[in-house]
Amino acid sequence: MTAWDTWPLLKQLEATVEENLERHLASADDWMPHEYVPWGEGRNFAVLGGEPWSAEQSRLSPTARAALELNLLTEDNLPSYHAELGSTFGRQGAWGVWVNRWTAEEGRHASCIRDYLLVTRGADPDRLERDRMATLQAGWDSGGKPLLHACAYVSFQELATRVSHRNTGGYCEDPIAEKLLTRIAMDENLHMIFYRNLVQAALEIAPSQTLRAIADAVAGFVMPGSVVPGFARKAVQIAQAGIYDLRVHHDDVIMPLLRHWRVFDAAGLDADGEQAQQDLAAALEALDARAARFVQRRAEAQAAHPTGQNG
Ligand SMILES: [Fe+2]
Ligand SMILES: [Fe+2]
Known about the structure:
This protein has 311 residues and is an all-alpha fold. It is built from 13 helices and no strands.
């Protein structure tokens, strides 16, 4: 049995995939990751007669390092994402071409962030490697999502990754890191557009099912980095710094896509579709309320301890 037998929508969406693959290939730059790394700063570690790593060698703040490490380890888990996408989208036709092209582009992200961190001594290399091993062994299991659920999830996830890289770049206060992360964020943006267009087409083919997929993706969104060792602690640190928090997630990731898809204007819905629309509205309200509480608590904590806010 092929993936097309499981989900006839794969066949119905193939023309959209083909069209967007062509558009993507025409707009994606063949950028060179080695051009973003300050190789001249590199030096040996202890085993090769150099200096062992220590935190004060880094020009990045602890929070900037935590954000870069989390972004890197999330990117590192690419073999799992490749396997998940391959089994959901299949290997046939334009879907298969997209999965491999996307994987090749994503492969640059981890390698150049790692090169940057090692060369600039921005991460403890032993811990980073142990965390990479743990992350890949944990793997990433998307829970066997149906096709439309996978497309909705990756739309949000690619945009979340773009925002996270871009905001991390701004926070680093290092022009080299910022240039590198801005470059990566441009890739993530193109990935987001690819999936956003697929969901747009799916809304026309199967509006109720697609709305259900979007509502579930919003309500149950989990970052792929959640399997990284120390994720909860790093995520709090990153949220406290405003690099990626619930407000950013609601305002800069969830809402722009929902507005683009005009989810609350969708026509031709059956009872399930209308229910999905109501569930989505409730999930948004809950997310917005959680975001407001988080921002308020953070402001109160920062007012009480004004010097403790910049890690
Ligand atoms: Fe990436
Ligand atoms: Fe991406």
